[in-house]
Design goal:
Distance between the termini: 29 Å
Low-confidence stretches: 2-18
Strand content: 15-25%
Number of helices: 5
Order of helices and strands: HEHEHEHEHEE
Helix content: 40-55%
CATH superfamily: Phosphoglycerate mutase-like
Structural class: alpha/beta
Number of domains: 1
Strand order of the largest sheet: 3-2-4-1-5-6
Shape: globular
CATH class: Alpha Beta
Mean pLDDT: 90
CATH topology: Rossmann fold
CATH architecture: 3-Layer(aba) Sandwich
Number of strands: 6
Length: about 180
Amino acid sequence: MLRLALALFLFAVPTLAHATDAGWALLRDGGHVVLLRHAFVTGTTDPANFDIGNCASQLNLSERGKQQSSRIGALFAARAAPIERVLSSRYCRCLDTARIAFEAEPEPFEPLDLLKTDPAEKAAQMEAVMKEIRGYSGSDNLVLVTHLENIEALTGVTPREGEAVVVAPEGDGLKVLGRVTF
């Protein structure tokens, strides 16, 4: 069993490195949309007294998450990946990831908040994000900082905390062009 786990790990490492290199190549060229999952947080779920306007009532970035956010920004700069605009979920962990990484104030964009449970509200939320993505035509990159569930619903992939997924519109959905892990 241990040998199987080790073999799978050794097989996956080059794949992740390749995926990251391909993702950086896309980002250096600019003109792409990046779905960025927020960096590492302090727990697993928001407290019962959650308030979108009060960071003290939410999961927040851990020290590791703050360091990861700094690393994200440093790598975007070192890899010459131009950023035109940063939109973020209104949750503090997403806003802080964006602020630390890109050293700018992100634009809060409510459709990037955690997915609604009501199917009609969820569909409207996803359509608002898709409209933003379809409408993007800049020469630099558009970064959307959001949550695991949102990226899964949009792409079918499960990114790690702080992972970037480079996407493009394709038909009614999105095509994953590359991924970058930090």
